[in-house]
Every structure is written in C-alpha cells, then in structure tokens.
Amino acid sequence: MLLLAPVVYFFPKNGIQVGGKKFNFLTKEEFLHPREQVKKDISKILAMVDTTNLDGSDSGDLSFLANNNQDHTKFKKHVNNSSGGFGAPKGGELSQESTSNIYLNDGARASLNQFFSKLDRASSEKSKVHILHYGDSQIEGDRMTSYIRQRIQNQFGGNGPGLIPAMNVYSTFTFKQSCSNNFVRYTCFGGKKLQNKRYGAMCSAARFTEEIYDSLQIANTNAIKEAWIEIEPSQNAQSRARSYNNVKMYYSSCVKPCSVKIYQNGNLIHEDNLIKDGKYHVLPLSFTSNAGKLKYVFSSAISPTICGFSLEGDYGIQVDNIGMRGCSGTIFGSIDGGVLSKMYADLNSELLILQFGGNAVPYLKDSAAVRSFASQFQSQIRVLKRLNPTTAILVIGPSDMSKFAGGIYESYHLLPYLVSQMKKCSGQENAGYWDLFSAMGGLNSMPAWVESGLAGKDYIHFNNKGASIASQMFYDAFEAEFARWKMKTP
Fold first, then answer.
1. Are residues 437 and 414 located together in one domain of the fold?
2. Domain with 175 in it: what CATH number?
C-alpha cells in the first residue's frame, strides 16, 4: 500500500499513453471512496410472477404420446391419416392484471386486436395459427419461447414446437435432431451464405452439396450423393411440445432429380421425388398419433435447399422459436422475399415477435448511433409488413445488460436511450412494444437477477429459470391485453 500510494496520488485521472497503449490506475478518489455495487431489490417483481407448471410437469392428457407402431414397411406412399383431434385447449380464466404492459398506439392496438380475433377462433374453427418468435441469443435453444408456447397452447390450443431448423446447432431440450456430416448450414445472419438468399422464414437452411444454378454445370453434375436428417420428440420438452402428429418439410432450389425416403421409427413409410422446378414447396405428412422418430434420406447429384421443418398438431397455435446468435434484427431485407412471403402464407403467420437490440448495445458509442440502429430496425419492420401485410408485430426490447467498470457491474450507459428509441420506432410502424428492460427492474437490475440465480455470469443472458420468469411476465401482459379485448368483444 505504501509503495502504491504515490502512484494513486499522482496518476492522471484519464490515464497515460506509453508506446501507443493507454494505461489506467486507481485515482485518489476511487482509492479513498471505492464505488459500491448497486443492489436492486427485485423481490416484489419475482413474487408477482406465477410460473406454476412451466417445467413440463403439467402433462394433461398425454394418451396420444404413444408411438404409431403400425407396420408401414409394405407402403411406398404414406397415407396422411390424422384423426384431426390434436390441439384441444385447456382454457381457463383470463386476467386483466399484469406487472407490465405492452405499449400500443391506436394502429398497433387495432392490428393486435385483429390477431386476437383469429387466436380466439382457432380452437372452435379448428384452424391453425403461427406465432413466429424471432430473436438473438437470448432466445436460442427455445429459451423464453418454450415457456410462452406452453402458456399459449394450454390456453388457446395447439401441440408441437412448430418450426425447427433444417440443421440445428444450438442445444435445446425441445426436440432431438441429427444429420449426416455432409449437410452444411447456411444463414442470413452470419457464417456461410446462400447465393440466392432463399432461406425462408427460419432465416437459415441446409444443403448437402454446394449451390449450382448454371444450366451447363447442372447438366454435367451427375454423381449421386446421399444425406439424411433425423428428428424425434424430446421427453424433456414442455408437455405440449412433446407431441405432434403433423410434420412438414419446407424446401426450395431443387434443380436436379432428388429422391427422398422417410422412415418412421426405423420403418420405411414414404418414398417420393421432390419437385425439381427450383421453386419453393412443402412436403407434408400426418399421423394418427405422435409421429415418433422420423428420418429423411435424400439422394441427388445437387442438393435442394432444406428451409426447415414444422412439427405440429392438427389445429391451434404454433409458437416458433427462431433464435439467431449475434443477430441484431436487421437482416430481413437480405432474404429472398418471394420464398419468405410464400412460407409466411403457408404457415398462416398472424403474429411476429421480434426480440432484438441486445447485440447492438455494446457497439453504440453515442446517441446518434442509437438513433441510426433504431432507424435500421424500423426499416426491417416495414419489410416484414410489406411481405405479410395482415400480420401483427410485437417487439420485445433488450433486457438490462451489465458491463464491468471501475470494480462494479453497471448497465450500459446508452441502454435506456436505446429502449426509448426502439419503443418510438415500433410505434411509428404500428407495432406493439414490450419493455423487458423495465419489466425486470430497469437500470442496474441485471446484477440482482444474477445474484438470485436467474441469469448467467456474463450479466447478459437469462438462464432457464430466469427465462421462465421473464417469459411469464411477457405472457401476463399479452394475456391481459387479450382479456381486455375479450371483455369488449360481443
């Protein structure tokens, strides 16, 4: 202490430059009066959140979970034979009370109310509605989405996890998937890119050969390659997501004959040839009971682009998790709009949830940079509304995020301003906004979530327990809006 005391006393507050590098040291003020970590009390927030039965223990009637053990080995074409009964809701009382609110201007409220009307009729009309939950690493692996899905499907009906990627790379407890080593993942938000940008609604796709669109190259490429993708339910998933009896494969860019054999629990049930016109198509299968393990085996000289699968019940609400690590939500304009709009239409996509902003936070240097990002994000909402004009949009803003500075964890300085700008820009596009930052306690609340065992030591991401609480707070606000709409609807 004696040796360092003179350094503390004389060291410049703004540091010194030595050899082109900057060095900092404790100032006299910091030495004599060290900063204390802000300890925010979030106990009241946590006490008001009910996460009962969100661990998958609320299994309900799972009599349909038995695998379909019929012998299909003699069939070359699978008979789509669903009974039409998967998806019944449990319902229950709705509350108009919530700890937080969705910010809605008149246009956003009108759009959300139109969605509520479709949501309300899905069970009685036995129709199917998709809610696509886009987000960054805060939702990857079905974190947050899985809890929202369970609540919505229990209340309004639906089974299955909905959309899953052609090639999953994130750890998830919601489904099991594996594929042959020659499949390569393509994404619009990082990594390897598709030349024609035909990713579809998942913003990622997979192929087992490189893209070829030159007619001469196509004609001269004849060596057959084989590849496979295997999918099965996970018993660790939320109860509603464990069972599904409708499976659809979405594909495009098939330019060469491609055969596909589909096996259910090891038995060949279907053989087909994909449509080789290069356009977007869907290959559907349905079953009388839970689909079990399905394996798709492809044979072709040039791979089609597999845009993803959807694992669904017969009717009700599908809530799709589309996590994109490192993405800031400014990529939708870089996707082929033709395939994207057709896939949205096939899915009957009626609500898009956009949970972004967190990845931009560490790189925002000033208020002008915040406004620039918010403007870019606003332009992406416009793109999505143009591709799917009747779809309602809800934005979930960033959570509190902490950085280590001066011996303590504190919120990024520009984070509150980013929240206000994202809320403003969402409203200008008639999109709703749910303020996760404020809902969890606002400025400097993340350290309290970490200390409570609800977030990781990176002071950015919720863990599964924290995600369940954050998700329930969102659902409570969503449910309250629906309940208020329902009260006014004849």
1. yes
2. 3.40.50.1110
Rounded-to-integer distance, Cα 395 and Cα 175, Å? 26
What is d(CA 182, CA 174) in angstroms, rounded to the nearest whole number? 24
Residue 33: how many other CB atoms lie within 10 Å: 9
Secondary structure element (H or E) that encloses residue 155, with its range: helix 145-156
DSSP designation for 314: S
User: By three-state DSSP, how is residue 9 classified?
Assistant: helix
Q: Which long-range contacts (CB under 8 A, 24 or more apart) does 24-27 make?
A: none
Tokens of 417: 């301003």
Cα separation of 326 and 216, whole Å? 38
Tokens of 79: 């008979």
CB contact at 8 A, 236 and 56: yes
The β-bridge relationship of strands 432-434 and 102-103 is antiparallel
Q: Beta strands 402-405 and 16-18: pairing type?
A: unpaired
How far is it, in rounded angstroms, from Cα 191 to Cα 64?
Answer: 40
Domain co-membership, 155 together with 21: no
- Check residue 444 and give left, alpha or beta (phi > 0: left; psi -120 to 50: alpha): left
Assigned token pair, 266: 């090891």
Each residue's pLDDT, cut to its tens digit, for the chain (490 residues) gives: 778 878 877 778 778 888 888 888 877 777 777 778 888 888 888 888 877 655 443 433 333 333 333 333 344 677 776 767 778 898 888 999 999 999 999 999 999 999 999 999 999 999 999 999 999 999 999 999 999 999 999 999 999 999 999 999 999 999 999 999 999 999 999 889 999 999 999 999 999 999 999 999 999 999 999 999 999 999 999 999 999 999 999 999 999 999 999 999 999 999 999 999 999 999 999 999 999 999 999 999 999 999 999 999 999 999 999 999 999 999 999 999 999 999 999 999 999 999 999 999 999 999 999 999 999 999 999 999 999 999 999 999 999 999 998 889 999 999 999 999 999 999 999 999 999 999 999 999 999 999 999 999 999 999 999 999 999 999 999 999 999 999 988 6
The Cα–Cα gap between 184 and 167 comes to 8
Tally of domains within the chain: 2
Q: What is the pTM of this model?
A: 0.89
Identify the sign of the CA torsion 205, 304, 351, 376: positive
In a shared domain, residues 244 and 279: yes
259 and 387 within one domain = yes
Cβ proximity of 353 and 345 under 8 Å: no
CA pair distance 298, 308, nearest whole angstrom: 14
My answer on whether 468 and 364 are in the same domain is yes
Residue 6 sits in which domain range? Answer: 1-34
Give yes or no: residues 300 and 224 share one domain.
yes
Q: How far is CA 290 from the centre of its chain?
A: 24
The angle, 0 to 180 degrees and rounded to 10, between the axes of the packed helices 106-125 and 145-156 is: 60
Single out the residue of 155, 31, 44 nearest to residue 92, CA to CA: 155
